[in-house]
Design brief:
One of its GO terms (molecular function) is hydroxypyruvate reductase (NADH) activity. By secondary structure, the chain is α/β, with parallel strands linked by helices. It is about 30% helix and about 15% strand. The longest helix has 19 residues. It binds 1,4-dihydronicotinamide adenine dinucleotide and 3-hydroxypyruvic acid (3PY).
Length: about 325
């Protein structure tokens, strides 16, 4: 099989610091685009057997208009941007990258939890405003600090990243509880959401975005959480109802929230979580995965996935 591959959105992966040789060696021809808008996708994929995407959406109509396509390589773990069913119906194999950034994403998640517990953004802003010099004492303690040891962390998603976060949280002396997820077989050793939420001091999300997990955390779930609990989302924006979270923070219901992901990325200015008056909210720009080490592992996995597919034994196939 000839192997013409088109990478539709290389720019988030390649920041000028990677060795792309394995990727170029994996195909007879590789065309790379920095980014592709929705109306460029079909034209760019004409004659391509392989599409490589990170967050570009490949829906049923797009796939129908690309009859040569045999393989989609996702340069990420999350595959919610691909219509997996439509791909399967057309005999297109979809492979993702797995465990490529476990230390990087887990440290980011813990960083968000630590920043919430220690009120890092508030103290940093206070020092920048000159509050320390004015304080008349050696320290500034304007914002209550939470000790994590002995507190309970709830996990929704206990795969690669959830397990790594669990290990780090246990190293901080936290008790970890895992929740059952909609769309997955119920496991007796895990807690149903309504039982889990009132018990946790912090909740962190590490599951995929699917139709069943969309708005997993909405107004009802936020209300079940302790009024001083933390919510952390380094998985996918659609897992949390953003308006409900903004309302809860404004009411002072949560101790704080931190998110690395928003429902649409890049976000629009009218995203409810970008409102300037929201207290105790930390936002990072979907940067949790982005160490050079993690991005280089993605390059390696994309090349491995391509080689395995051409050898007739696909690996990391998700459909
Ligand atoms: N912010 C970032 O930079 C990154 C975000 N992610 C997100 O984190 C998510 C989790 O990544 P990993 O832990 O590596 O994945 P994983 O596949 O190892 O673990 C996923 C967890 O969710 C559960 N799960 C799987 N399919 C499900 C479904 N259909 N419905 C409900 N639950 C399901 C699994 O049981 C498992 O507990 C990814 O799907 C991705 O969306 C991943 C990497 C980087
Ligand atoms: O790997 C993922 O799912 C990410 O979101 C990073 O691209």
């Amino acid at each position: 099989m000839s192997s013409r591959a088109v990478f539709l959105d290389l720019s988030p992966l390649e920041q000028g610091d990677l060795d792309l040789t394995p990727l170029h060696s994996a195909f007879s021809e590789l065309v790379c685009h920095e980014q592709s808008t929705a109306d460029q996708i079909v034209e760019r994929l004409q004659g391509a057997q392989v599409a490589i995407v990170n967050k570009v959406a490949l829906n049923a109509d797009t796939l129908a208009a690309c009859p040569d396509l045999k393989l989609i390589l996702v340069s990420a773990t999350g595959v919610n941007n691909i219509d997996l069913q439509a791909a399967g119906e057309r005999g297109i194999v979809v492979c993702n990258c797995q465990a490529y950034g476990t230390p990087t994403v887990a440290q980011h998640t813990l960083m968000l939890l630590l920043a919430l517990a220690t009120r890092l953004p508030d103290y940093q802003a206070a020092v920048a405003r000159g509050r320390w010099q004015e304080s008349g004492q050696f320290c500034l303690l304007d914002f209550p600090i939470v000790e994590l040891e002995g507190k309970t962390l709830g996990l929704l998603g206990h795969g690669e990243l959830g397990s790594a976060v669990s290990r780090l949280a246990e190293a901080f002396g936290m008790r970890v509880l895992v929740g059952n997820l909609p769309g997955r077989p119920r496991r007796p050793e895990r807690l149903d959401l309504d039982d889990l939420l009132p018990q946790v001091d912090a909740l962190t999300l590490h599951c995929p975005l699917t139709e069943q997990t969309r708005n997993l955390i909405g107004a009802h779930e936020l209300q079940l959480m302790k009024p001083n609990a933390f919510l952390i989302n380094a998985a996918r924006g659609g897992l949390v109802d953003e308006q409900a979270l903004a309302d809860a923070l404004r009411r002072g219901h949560l101790g704080g929230a931190a998110t690395d992901v928003l429902t649409s990325e890049p976000p629009r200015d009218d995203n409810p979580l970008l409102a300037p008056d929201l207290p105790r909210l930390i936002i990072t720009p979907h940067s949790a995965w982005g160490s050079r080490e993690a991005r280089q592992r993605i390059v390696g996995q994309l090349a491995e996935n391509a080689a395995a597919f051409f050898a007739g034994a696909p690996i990391r196939q998700v459909n």
